[in-house]
Specification:
The chain has 8 helices and 8 strands, in the order βββαβαβααααβαβαβ. With 213 residues, the chain is of the alpha/beta class. The strands form 2 sheets. The protein has a 5-stranded parallel sheet, with helices on both faces. A 3-stranded antiparallel sheet has the order 2-1-4. α5 packs across α6 and α6 runs parallel beside α7. The longest helix has 16 residues.
């Protein structure tokens, strides 16, 4: 099954393209790494697949639909720097947010949702940190919490924007292990990184990006 398909796509913001002529096809259970320098368009490409950046031309399909319609089956892990570490919320509460799209923002979480959040924290090795304030965790721990939030939603495609930036060796290995397990379970993964060695270690395909693939 083709999960992500871009044909002649340009992506950007408010009518201004950041990346042009994107052609890619990603099936279920495979990992695609986007490699390139800062400002190359990697983040914009990832954000476009969940409707956070604009598709300005070409044909973009996520699970056979537009990115806006297909994103309910996706999980998105932003860069750590995109978040407010001072927001008064615990690690467990952050992960539970991953369930809101399934249940609705104004409906109470149930036992199954809390169990999914606990399981997700367990998978990234942070079950003992569930009650700790998110902003007090290390950078690597915060990145793992964001990964847990994404997988708590049980996505069929996971998109990660520079997940290894500022993480320690233990967190990096934990993230790699979880991503390998997810692809083995049939989840498609798109990951952006500037580390070509990591990309080759993890991904089935590597795409170099710098204004265009």
């Amino acid at each position: 099954m083709t999960v992500l398909e871009y044909a002649g796509v340009s992506v950007g913001y408010r009518g201004s393209p950041v990346l042009t002529d994107v052609n890619l096809e990603l099936p279920a259970g495979r990992c695609l790494a986007l490699v390139g320098p800062n400002g190359a368009g990697k983040s914009t490409l990832i954000r476009s697949a969940v409707g956070l950046a604009d598709v300005l031309g070409g044909t973009a399909r996520v699970f056979g639909q537009t990115p806006e319609r297909g994103r309910d089956r996706c999980g998105y892990v932003p860069q750590i720097g995109d978040l407010d570490a001072d927001f008064p919320v615990t690690a467990g509460q952050v992960v539970l947010m991953g369930r809101y799209r399934r249940i609705g923002w104004f409906r109470p979480t149930g036992a199954a949702d809390r169990r999914a959040a606990r399981d997700a924290l367990e998978r990234v090795g942070l079950a003992a940190q569930a009650g700790r304030r998110f902003g007090l965790l290390s950078g690597g721990q915060r990145q793992r919490v964001l990964l847990a939030r994404a997988i708590a939603a049980e996505p069929r495609m996971l998109l990660l924007d520079e997940p290894f930036n500022g993480v320690d060796a233990a967190s990096q290995e934990s993230i790699l292990t979880v991503l390998r397990d997810l692809t083995a379970a049939g989840v498609a993964i798109v990951i952006s990184t500037h580390d070509l060695t990591l990309a080759r270690e993890l991904a089935d395909e590597v795409c170099q990006v710098n204004g265009r693939p």
